[in-house]
Amino acid sequence: MSKIKILDETTINKISAGEVVDRPSSIVKELIENAIDANSTQITIEIKNGGIKYIRVTDNGDGIPPDDVEIAFYRHATSKIQNYQDINNIYTMGFRGEALSSIAAISKLNLYTKTQDDILGTHVEYIGGKLILKENIGCPSGTTLIVEDVFYNTPARYKFLKSESVETKHLIEVASREALINANISFELISNGKMIFKTSGKGSIEDNIYDILGYQLKGHLIPISINKEDILIKGFVSDLDFYEKNSGDILFYVNNRYVFDNDYKKTITESYKSLLTRHQYPVAVFNVLLPANRVDINVHPSKLYVKLYDKDLIFNAIEQEIKKKLVKERSKTIDIAID
Ligand code: ADP
Ligand code: MG
């Protein structure tokens, strides 16, 4: 008998879940992104105990038709791409079809979903990736996912979870980044019954910055808009009468997707060099909108890193424009002082 065996789907999902889901905040990220992709205008996120015990994400989006609900939980099942070519033209947040199967594999999950066209919705329950219950049910149009007892069946992962307050901090960070840039969606984040933030969904990123990063920024934001060929760079930076003690609010987005990029952080700090002192950091939020084939988002399963083909051009433009605006700001202040 052969010693080599192909693992069953539940085991594969449990193993590969680690790439997509490493802590409660990554579950919340995936669920929010699914809600965004489903054309929602309202997303409510409710968590308890840092998301370890309980996460609920409710949206008013497209919903999943009854026949598709079970398929959505298969690995690599997605409605967003059909072949490898499509990866060059992605404007949705998801495309790998890994989130639902991964999350279901390491938690107790309930999903309620209904499309506009259906009279009845569907409720499914998965425990450790196994379908326990499926029923028709009356529910509002849209989707609600409830995820409980994260990593209950993967003790090694569970052990790596930090304290509830640290997990809550990560979760607020992730939800904030998503909410801030999606200004046409009204977001609400509630942690242990307490409202953390709420955005209006009225389309203003500037208002979202105040609602999420804080009202102390009012009167201190400089808008920036740069157009280079088919690339549009839009953002806000803080003026020189404002600074923060860490670089946590230097945020970068590519086609509305939050991404990590150390060169971006360097670009921003370089732009403020000699204008702010050491340990003083600006707020800088930039969103680069470009054709999907100018960026590779398939670098890592978390989709937090991207390859930007026009990186130098973009970062040079950002640096020059910030410097120009800050000099202008400064001369304005000097003018007022002289007057
Ligand atoms: P991906 O987002 O990469 O397609 P997921 O595993 O996150 O993969 O989701 C699988 C599929 O389930 C999605 O392609 C989508 O069709 C459906 N789906 C998941 N969440 C939602 C939601 N909140 N609203 C509507 N459809 C959803
Ligand atoms: Mg997804």
TrEMBL record:
The keyword DNA damage applies. Keywords: DNA damage, DNA repair, Endonuclease, Hydrolase, Nuclease. One of its GO terms (cellular component) is mismatch repair complex. It comes from the Bacteria. One of its GO terms (biological process) is mismatch repair. Residues 209-327 form the DNA mismatch repair protein S5 domain. The keyword RNA-binding does not apply. One of its GO terms (molecular function) is ATP-dependent DNA damage sensor activity. This protein is involved in the repair of mismatches in DNA. It is required for dam-dependent methyl-directed DNA mismatch repair. May act as a 'molecular matchmaker', a protein that promotes the formation of a stable complex between two or more DNA-binding proteins in an ATP-dependent manner without itself being part of a final effector complex. Belongs to the DNA mismatch repair MutL/HexB family. This is DNA mismatch repair protein MutL. The gene is mutL. The chain holds residues 1 to 339 of 598 of the full protein.
